[in-house]
Design a protein that fits this description.
Layout lengths: L1 H4 L11 H4 E2 L2 E5 L6 H15 L1 H8 L5 H23 L1
Antiparallel strand pairs: 1-2
Length: 88
Amino acid sequence: MQDKEKKFKKPYTRINKQDMEIPGCYSGVRVVNGNIELALKTFKRKMKDSGKLEELKERKEFLKPSAIKRRKMQLAVRADWQRRQNEE
């Protein structure tokens, strides 16, 4: 009867960020206790914070400087239009 009343705890141990880091490798992540989900989450966060994915996407294809300027101008015009719409 006491076995039914007794609640079992999950075997969970808290994982520190320092345990997951690999010395000398900023973008590397170590899998601790077989927790691949947490390691993947940490790796994605590191990649996003470092800006390597954005740089990789930019380098995927070459854009002419005039195309970059044109895109920048289009974004500025759109932002200005949206700002004016919000003011009214």
